[in-house]
Amino acid sequence: MALYNFKKIMVVPTSKEFIDITLSKTQRKTPTVIHKHYQIHRIRHFYMRKVKFTQQNYHDRLSQILTDFPKLDDIHPFYADLMNVLYDKDHYKLALGQINIAKNLIDNVSKDYVRLMKYGDSLYRCKQLKRAALGRMCTIMKRQKQSLEYLEQVRQHLSRLPTIDPNTRTLLLCGYPNVGKSSFINKVTRADVEVQPYAFTTKSLFVGHMDYKYLRWQVVDTPGILDHPLEERNTIEMQAITALAHLRSAVLYVMDLSEQCGHTLKQQLELFNNIRPLFANKPLLVVANKCDIKKISELTEEDKACDKLLAARVDSKMKGKKVHDVLNRLHLAMPAKRDDKPRPPFIPEGAKVGRKTMEVDAPKRKTERDLEMEMGDDYVLDLQKYWDLMNQDEKHDVIPEIWEGHNIADYIDPEIMKNLEDLEKEEELKVKAGEYESEEESEDEEMQEIRQLAKQIREKRKMKIVCSKEKDVHGPRMPRTVKKVERKTLEKEMGGLGLDMTGKDAVSRFSFSSHYAVNARRSRSVTVLKKRKREASVAPTSRTRSQSASRPPRDQSGVRDPKMAKKAKKLMKSQQKDMNRQGKKGEADRHVFDLKPKHLFSGKRKSGTNDHR
Amino acid sequence: MRIEKCYFCSGPVYPGHGMMFVRNDCKVFRFCKSKCHKNFKKKRNPRKTRWTKAFRKASGKELTVDNSLEFEKRRNTPVKYRRELWGKTVEAMKKVEEIKRKRQSRFIMNRLKKGKQLEKTEAINEVKKNIHLIKAPHAGKAKQMEDKMVQKLAEDVEMDGAD
């Protein structure tokens, strides 16, 4: 049914958008390439296609708009009336009429220009015709700007209308503004209508649904109605009237007994009478609302009479199953008594107290802020005065927190004194037992001497290690016997070890002069050498290590005379010359520094050799 | 104001010093300096890092179980302020501190005593093995022999004289 498809109306674009969309579609969906050397029928066909395509687009879209929007004659009178109230029937019809006209005009334009194009004889002519056609169509659309805007607004509002099904079971709430209709619907259904203390909070119809006897019931909330003749009613009130007039429902006329809505009971009654004709053929119920504020028994005589009248009327008008059902729903259900045990309602103490404080204005406690205001500049925030201690005069004490790197809070214990006593007793016992006496190790003389010696030994050892590390082991090593040993050093060393070095005995025993070579005597320069003569003083007494002393040095062995020596030296030097020139370390040095130096192997050879470039 | 304990080295974290790290499981770690913090981030175990207190206690280098150490502990029930209790507590703290110090040093001293014994034996060994570096084995023996001989002669002479 069209009734429910108000949300499915297509978006109505603005005129500018409309034109843009259509033209760009034409551009994209039709072939774009044409040359003037093509055959004329091809050119004509090309441009005709464009014109027809544009016309087709416009036509389709406008038709869609026309079909989407509901025709006021075809829909339920309730909606028709509602739309009339909201959007003005005439304006609506006019807008749609304009759209229709535009559609027809566009069709005509296209027909004309296609006919003309049959006689176009060049590319240029056809192109101009196409331009003119499209231009005219777009102008027509530009003129529809107002209608399109209006229709778009109508569409938006229409899609937001509540979906009220006029044919199902409905309850309609009506009455003055602010009587409690929206609150009622909020309570009864899952609707969330805004409830505010000012009048005309509800500005349009609202729907809620509730279940009763396995059936779905619609509850419609209306904006409040004021008491004045029909012609003077505004749009909002008219909505309510429309609903009342067209919806076949049970009407709940809500009255406010406490007159909190701002209208007396009498006024409400008058309104009731005024709109009575609208209630024809509808089950009616008068709802007395806000009875927690003013009970029915507190009404005055007059009001009571009105009530009675109302009640009588209501009784006479009640008919139909629906109302009975609704009535049952609206009565307070009293459970049947099981036994005679009284079961009064339970109100907790706090609620009672709360209620009491609400009723009586109790003197409030003086706050800090009040104090501050009183004292002005003298006021000092002192939170410690509220503390609840055993000794009230200790409240303003400065509490120590840290002592020597320890937190006092870690030591606080009500039993600390007892623990301390125990600890001290323990300590005393320990002291008595002699735990704390430091044992002075009185070592005997022997031990001390041993320590002394050990120390010396260690030192001597370290020295020896250091000395041996300092020795140069990388160069050629000469045997010990080659070096000369000074008498003094030997004496000192042996003396340090405790041996006696004085006396000839020592000398004879360690005949170092014979033992070790006397190199000091032999100088580098070649002195007068006797043939196979040994030094007189070097008379070996023992054969042990004396032969090394007797051998002549290599550069003098086998050499007869100075002339030969000279020659030998010359030979030596001449051999060395070569090696020296090549920077070699010795005979065995075969290291090649650079087999292929780059500067000799790269670049062009300008003039001459490869030794240098 | 509280002096907290550093998680890594167990040293004091004074207010305004160090860093606090809160992990996703709501465990709080306080560090006294970036050294501890960096070690923690490297996932090092304080019980294996030699310079921390945790290591020293875990490897028995320091006093762990003692009555004097039970005084300082985090209590969960707060006590309302009372002047005399606080005063007494401060006094008690001082005494407890003294006792604690004595006991801790005693503990360490006892531990180090063994070293002294070892030192002694080592010295004796050293002397026995390497005495030749200082004193030649037969140093002074010659003299001794001489003296002995002289003595003997003297005795003989005496004896002869007596006869």
From TrEMBL, chain A:
Pfam families registered for this protein in UniProt: NOG1, NOG1_N, NOGCT
Entry annotated with the keyword Oxidoreductase: no
Biased composition, class Polar residues, residue ranges: 539-550
InterPro entries: G_OBG, GTP-bd, NOG1, NOG1_N, NOG1_Rossman_fold_dom, NOG_C, P-loop_NTPase
SUPFAM superfamilies in the cross-refs: P-loop containing nucleoside triphosphate hydrolases (SSF52540)
Stated role: Involved in the biogenesis of the 60S ribosomal subunit.
Compositionally biased residues, Basic and acidic residues: 552-564, 575-597
Region of interest called Disordered, as start-end residue ranges on this chain: 521-613
Residue stretches making up the OBG-type G domain: 169-302
Protein name, per record: Nucleolar GTP-binding protein 1
Main location as per UniProt: nucleus
Top-level lineage group: Eukaryota
Gene Ontology CC entries for this record: nucleolus
Keyword Nucleus attached: yes
UniProt keyword list: Coiled coil, GTP-binding, Nucleotide-binding, Nucleus, Ribosome biogenesis
GO terms for biological process, alphabetical: ribosome biogenesis
Family to which this protein belongs: Belongs to the TRAFAC class OBG-HflX-like GTPase superfamily. OBG GTPase family. NOG subfamily.
Regions of compositional bias (Basic residues) in chain numbering: 521-534, 598-607
Location(s), subcellular: Nucleus, Nucleolus
Coiled-coil blocks: 436-463
UniProtKB/TrEMBL annotation, chain B:
Xref: SUPFAM superfamilies: Glucocorticoid receptor-like (DNA-binding domain) (SSF57716)
GO molecular function, one term: structural constituent of ribosome
GO cellular component terms, A-Z: nucleolus
TRASH domain span: 6-44
Protein's cellular compartments: Nucleus
Highest taxon above the source species: Eukaryota
GO biological process, one term: ribosomal large subunit biogenesis
Principal location class: nucleus
InterPro entries associated with the record: L24e/L24_sf, Ribosomal_eL24, Ribosomal_eL24-rel_N, Ribosomal_eL24_CS, TRASH_dom
Keywords: Nucleus, Ribosome biogenesis
SMART domains listed in its UniProt record: TRASH
Gene3D superfamilies for this protein: Ribosomal protein L24e
Family membership: Belongs to the eukaryotic ribosomal protein eL24 family.
Function, as annotated: Involved in the biogenesis of the 60S ribosomal subunit. Ensures the docking of GTPBP4/NOG1 to pre-60S particles.
Assembly behavior: Associated with nucleolar and cytoplasmic pre-60S particles. At the end of biogenesis it dissociates from cytoplasmic pre-60S particles and is likely to be exchanged for its ribosomal homolog, RPL24.
Protein name: Probable ribosome biogenesis protein RLP24
Organism per entry: Esox lucius (Northern pike)
